Amino acid sequence: MSADLTDFVPLQYWKVDVAGSILDLPIVPIKSDFAISLMMVIDMGVKFGAHVGQALAQQLAPLKPDIIVGAATLGIPVAIEVTRALGLDHYVILQKSPKIHLADALKQRISSITSKGEQHLLLDLAAIPKLSGKRVAVVDDVVASGSSLKGSLELVRRAGADVVGIGVVLTEAREWQETLGPDCALVHRLAHIPQFARGANSGWVPIPETFG
In the sheet where 21-31 sits, what is the strand order? Predict the structure, then answer.
């Protein structure tokens, strides 16, 4: 999709259709001339969580995953609801906080557009038997730069998993495509959001190159 910035009026919210659920996402500045529309899935309520879980499960079910993997923190409710909707029981969460039981965990370095500084994903060694040799779907709330998602994929593959699919509520802009490379073919999404630049009257307008 191509467009000129002058085609848009200044915005403070971005409307997006997430598998039939219409959201008005607040536009939040990351820098003085750059902003994103922010979806905090943990604040969206139980019904929305169940809705996106069911919608992603419908897309992932044909891949016959044995287990779902999500990354803390915002990927946790997505992993739980997709697991529930698929009729599975167990799921695996990749942690970011170095809790005491994760002293010997498998570790993967990542970065995120919404978090400052370098972070790590941690996979509890006790969870490896749940992943080794299994068909795994990795899920998350939003993929933007793709660094967190790529880290998740690398970590579960180090545990011996066969990644058969990726499910995200939202894809954002296009940077994630370059980061994931061939793994882009595994991505199933419910909706797409652009990123934003300063427009007339200091309002925010979508950057044409970031449309999906």
Answer: 13-18, 21-31, 34-37, 195-198, 204-206
As a whole number, mean pLDDT of residues 185-201 equals 94
Element (H, E) at 171: strand 162-172
- Asked whether the predicted pLDDT for residue 187 surpasses 50, the reply is yes
Contact at 8 Å (CB) between 145 and 71?
no
pLDDT band at 184 (very low <50, low <70, confident <90, very high): very high
- Closest Cα to residue 163, out of 174, 143, 144, 149? 149
Percent of the chain with pLDDT over 70: 92
Reduced to 3 states (helix: H, G, I; strand: E, B; else coil), residue 172 is strand
* pLDDT at residue 2 tops 50: no
How many CB atoms neighbour CB 102 within 10 A?
A: 18
Q: Residue 207 contacts by C-beta under 8 Å, 6 or more apart in sequence?
A: 5, 173, 194, 195, 196, 197
Can you name the residues that pair with 70 across neighbouring β-strands? 93, 139
The Cα 176–Cα 113 span in angstroms is 11
Residue showing tokens 């998993």:
161
Residue pair 7/210 in contact by the 8 Å Cβ criterion: no
Average pLDDT over residues 7-35: 88
Q: 3-state DSSP call for residue 53?
A: helix
Here the tokens at position 57 are 């499960």
DSSP state of 65: -
Neighbours of 63 (CB within 10 A): 16
